[in-house]
Write a structure and sequence with these properties.
Blueprint: E1 2-11, E2 15-24, E3 35-42, E4 47-50, E5 53-57, E6 60-65, E7 69-76, E8 79-86, E9 92-98, E10 107-115, E11 119-124, E12 129-132, E13 135-139, E14 142-144, E15 149-156, E16 163-169, E17 173-180, E18 201-204, E19 212-215, E20 224-228, E21 233-240, E22 243-247, E23 253-257, E24 261-263
Parallel strand pairs: 2-16, 3-9, 11-17
Antiparallel strand pairs: 1-2, 3-6, 4-5, 4-7, 7-8, 9-10, 10-17, 11-14, 12-13, 12-15, 15-16, 18-21, 18-24, 19-20, 21-22, 22-23
Length: 266
């Protein structure tokens, strides 16, 4: 009689992953070892499809599956998610999804065990900051050389919702976690922004030379890239002290002395 590693997700204020053990009878005459899968979703009661076959509703468990790669689809009303999960012999994979109408707002993780050690972490988007047990350990994707036992993993990326997962890593196993983060959208309805009615412009004033030099940097040492004449209208891009960055009629950009231009009255 061999043991099958099973880990289940309980959703509270954070995701909590706990590992438990159960028995799986293996035929001594040569029947292949089985594997399992546990699927949860928010909202629950989503229809589960394995390899295009409807098998139940979330939360869903199957503990007598062949060791294969499965296509999984979850569907709730008009919302769905699908992905592939490879099951490893003698273990149970975890699939947890927050279902949303659009992909950027969808989040979740797939967790699988195999013989080895440590934690392998992959995220979408990549380059997410990873913190484990309160210490920042790097940027995803990465392999965490951690000991067996309980750990808290947090993934954080600008403009995405932070995700926290607690795991209990069994001795002699590598836990692979593939995480999708949901994009965070600011509520722009509460932000007061100035209304820009027109593009700011400046007019070239009279100069001692009868023209104004446009330079490649805001300095008298800057190279001359063009010349403009008094009365020419330029688009004001940026004010930098005694210099203005402007765009000319032909699309070229450069710097002019603010002494010899004035803002056009709108």
């Amino acid at each position: 009689m061999k043991k099958i590693i099973v880990y289940t997700l309980i959703i509270t204020s954070v995701l909590i992953l706990m590992l438990r053990s159960s028995s799986l009878i293996v035929d001594l005459l040569g029947i292949k070892q089985k594997s399992g899968i546990s699927i949860t979703s928010t909202p629950s009661d989503a229809t589960v499809f394995l390899n295009n076959e409807e098998v139940g509703k979330t939360p869903f468990e199957a503990m007598d599956l062949a060791v294969l790669e499965y296509q999984i689809k979850l569907q709730k009303d008009q919302v769905n998610w699908q992905g592939n999960v490879k099951l490893n012999a003698g273990t149970v994979a975890i699939v947890n999804r927050d279902l949303a109408a659009d992909i950027p707002s969808s989040a979740g993780e797939v967790l699988t065990l195999k013989k080895g050690q440590g934690i392998t972490l992959i995220s979408n988007p990549k380059d997410s900051k990873v913190t484990i047990d309160g210490s920042e350990v790097g940027i995803s994707p990465l392999n965490l050389n951690v000991k067996a036992g309980e750990h808290t993993i947090i993934l954080d990326h600008a403009n995405y919702i932070k995700r926290s997962i607690r795991v209990n890593l069994p001795d002699g196993y590598n836990l692979t976690i593939v995480v999708d983060l949901a994009i965070s959208e600011a509520d722009l309805s509460t932000v007061s922004l100035p209304v820009i009615k027109t593009t700011p412009e400046v007019i070239v004033k009279n100069t001692p030379t009868g023209f104004l030099r446009v330079r490649d940097k805001p300095s008298l040492l800057g190279l001359e890239v063009a010349q403009v004449k008094p009365g020419d209208v330029l688009i004001l891009l940026e004010e930098e002290g005694a210099w203005d960055r402007v765009r000319l009629a032909d699309g070229a950009e450069g710097y002019v002395s603010s002494t010899y231009v004035e803002k056009k009255i709108q």
